[in-house]
Design brief:
33% strand, 291 residues, 24% helix, Rossmann fold, eight-stranded mixed sheet, alpha/beta, 17 strands, binds S-adenosylmethionine, 2 domains, globular, Immunoglobulin-like
């Protein structure tokens, strides 16, 4: 029987001590990152707010003035502040793109990759488009040697700072400032191999030397390259996320199946659950499989 990726497996990100989704609605979401409460735009939130009284608590609100988005600071917010997820520590900041440096919908994937890594002997992991590095820190914390790639010096510096906060020994993560596709192609030519590959490609991005990344053109090429990089070790795994390009989980799954053949795994949406109402915000998609 043909094995197929099961695409009904939506993953639920539940509140943890340093993060909770307090409420959402009217195209906004209200979240707590440690002690700081932020309100920011959320296109998925077509519904009404359920706890309007909570919104006054926001320390900062990302709002648009004459089509330009910026943070309105209501109470004092430090330039950066520390958060943790288990032993993994990282800093949050209010960035100009309405992000905080943490994507909480990834939490079930951190848990899953940690579990996979703990089963592999001498795991060697590749994390592409690694941003502030939380997936890399979780992998290194689980015993892996990690190659973390990002094209932005600023993101790489932030990820390095997070690694120091998490007490990850310096020789556990190789930091690479490069275009993800160019790096992967080079690694394939060198005959490199990885026991786990994690990637979170944006819809559009730029490499370290200005290379243009367009998901619709470049993802198929990147997947072909990564097929050569994924080791045959039992337990080796592949995890891809997507959040901004509007693709359905099945589209990513079929893209993977057309390259890797019949693999057994799951895919679906990434949901963040509200603390009280249990409503969810669909916040991205993922596909993952284990060899
Ligand atoms: C989608 S975010 C990654 C989110 C992250 N994985 C997480 O869960 O926190 C995009 C990252 O990709 C990087 N990026 C964009 N284009 C790139 C490219 N061509 N090569 C490498 N990194 C790129 C950006 O600098 C940014 O850090």
């Amino acid at each position: 029987m043909t094995k197929k990726l099961n695409c009904d497996q939506h993953l639920l990100s539940l509140p943890w001590s340093d993060y909770e989704l307090l409420d959402s609605g009217d195209s906004m979401k209200l979240e707590r990152f440690g002690a700081i409460v932020v309100a920011r735009p959320e296109t998925q939130a077509l519904w009404k707010k359920e706890r309007p009284e909570l919104w006054e608590k926001a320390d900062a609100v990302f709002a648009f003035h004459e089509k330009k988005g910026a943070w309105d600071i209501k109470k004092s917010v430090p330039e950066s502040w520390e958060l943790s997820w288990g032993p993994t520590r990282f800093s949050a900041r209010l960035t100009g793109f309405k992000h905080t440096g943490v994507f909480p919908e990834q939490e079930p994937n951190w848990l899953w990759s940690r579990t996979q890594i703990e089963k592999i002997e001498r795991p060697n992991i590749l994390n592409l488009f690694g941003y502030t590095g939380i997936a890399s820190l979780v992998a290194a914390g689980a015993g892996a040697f990690v190659t973390h790639v990002d094209a932005s010096k600023q993101s790489l510096d932030w990820a390095c700072t997070n690694a120091r906060l998490s007490n990850i020994p310096e020789d556990k993560i190789r930091w690479v400032l490069d275009d993800a596709l160019a790096f992967a192609k080079r690694e394939a030519r060198r005959g490199a191999s990885y026991d786990g590959i994690i990637l979170d490609p944006p819809a559009f991005g730029r490499g370290a030397k200005g290379e243009v990344w367009k998901i619709e053109e470049d993802l198929p090429i990147l997947l072909e390259t990564l097929k050569d990089l994924l080791s045959d070790k039992p337990g080796s795994f592949f995890l891809i996320n997507g959040y901004a390009a509007g693709y359905a989980p099945r589209s990513f799954a079929q893209a993977l199946e057309s390259v890797f053949g019949n693999v057994q795994g799951e895919c679906g949406e990434l949901h963040i659950q509200e603390t009280q109402s249990k409503r969810v915000i669909p916040s991205g998609i993922y596909v993952r499989f284990v060899r």
